[in-house]
Write a structure and sequence with these properties.
The complex is a heterodimer of chains A (265) and B (304). Chain A has 265 residues and is α/β, with parallel strands linked by helices. Helices cover 22% and strands 36% of the residues of chain A. Chain A has three domains: 92 residues, Elongation Factor Tu (Ef-tu), domain 3; 120 residues, 3-Layer(aba) Sandwich (Rossmann fold), CATH 3.40.50.80; 46 residues, Dihydroorotate dehydrogenase B (pyrk subunit), domain 3, CATH 2.10.240.10. The chains are: A alpha/beta (265), B alpha/beta (304). At the A-B interface, loops of A face strand 5, strand 6 and helix 7 of B.
Chain lengths: 265, 304
Amino acid sequence: MAIDRQAKVLEAESWGDYHLLRVGSPAVGRDARPGQFVMVKACETTVPLLRRPLSLHDAGPSTVDLFFRTAGEGTRVLSRKRPGETLDLLGPLGKGYTLSGRLKGRKTWLVGGGRGIAPLYFLGRELLALGAKVAVLYGGRSRDDLPLVDEFESAGLAVLPSTDDGSLGFHGLVSELLRRELGRGRADRLYACGPDAMMKAVAGLADAAGIPAEYSLEAMMGCGIGACWGCVHRIRDVSGDGWVKICEEGPVFPGERVVWEGSPR
Amino acid sequence: MTDLAVDLGFLRLRNPVLTASGTFGYGLEFEPYLGLERLGGVVVKGLYFEPREGNPPPRLVETPSGLINAIGLQGVGVRAFAEKVLPRLRGRGTAVIVNACGADDDEYLRVVEFLDREEGIAAYELNISCPNVKKDGMCPALFPGPTHDLVKRLKAVSRRPVITKLSPNVTDIVEIAQAAAEAGTDAVALVNTFLAMAVDIETRRPRLANTFGGLSGPAIRPLAVRMVYQVASRVRVPVIGMGGIMTGADALEFMVAGASAVEVGTANFVDPDAAARIVGEISAWCEARGVDRVRDLVGTVRTD
């Protein structure tokens, strides 16, 4: 992990509230793995005070791509960045998705909702390179929430879109789309990222079908390096369950370790 | 070359910059970003005797120039600290100060008695002022009587110096500092966080699961400077100042107001190398102004 205080924005693209920045940063990009994240500081003032955690949408030897949705002041400042301006990046941080074991010829499903699609592009590209078959279940409220369909398809990743209002693809929640797909077959592995409620529904289906799954969790993060103990989620361990720091032990956890809110412990 | 060493009487620090408890983990988390030997000292995250689970999330909310936290002192307990963390902190060339917690007076005593058997600890900082572990921010540091009694009992058993960390959530912090001084505390550290609350107007719910939390960051700095000034000018024990220090200039403001040393807190979250950067900024400021010894600046504020 590195601190790159002068990472230059190379490209900036926006679709309504969604934004994609390509940032030059060999220090962060070269060691990055799918599922890892960076802590981004967009300005020198104290409002907003903290860095923002953003998962890596993609990374290369000299660049990182960040995909995010405007949610508050921090992401608003980031969304106004133009090529030539700089960002202060801390990363890559956390533990990403598991890409070990035999993947060649295996069928994988990537399930993402809204801005939660961000890390699945990087993951999908790596899985393809390892010879896996990849289908991306990409959900949102309406077609405006699915700006990256073309980008995934250009990379050779098959996309199954779903929208709550039926404006694009399957009409319903992405978890309902997963249920339909499970009626037609199964995958060898599932990887997901999105809001807890979506992932809880996905986990219920994946567990019932016996598909090994990994989930990238999200929480308000203070530091990203395990110092503040702010970003906890309920996680199972051999000795029981407790509040575990997402930034340090995650953000990606195997399904059997995650205790979803409202689930019996 | 400015001499950055400061003297707390019971403890000489290579420079005035410590890290505030709860913002620097157990120190080791920061090793990829700064050499611990560059700091005056490290105050580790609060330790109860047993491991502690902490509060449910959300535990953090950001406010203008500030951060409200309600972590609830989640931690590994003294045994795991002594076995796994302390051996790795020893010999790093920085003072290790343990922030000691307790659900009641007896637990504080058990923490200190247990750690007194371990080597490599320079002092204890008594955390009698965390606002997030009891209902409505209740803690001993809100009252002079309980503060006095607890400090007195701990001083009677501890083989090490005791720093008492005070709460700003009181009518008169001088009265509490005085109570700690009369009970024999070797220094006071102030301030802990301000009891605070943020509400989501859409859901009409508090933004923290704990409802209340403690506000830190630059938003509280002028309040903290005022309290450090009041305590330093009226209580005869060394003062360690903290509250929203982000730069060397901020640290020097506390020192001029009366602090013998400072703790850097929330800044560690923004920049993991902030504490070391602040040491460098203090040094550069002193060099530029021909200050030979940074300790000569302590309490030099002019109010005449």
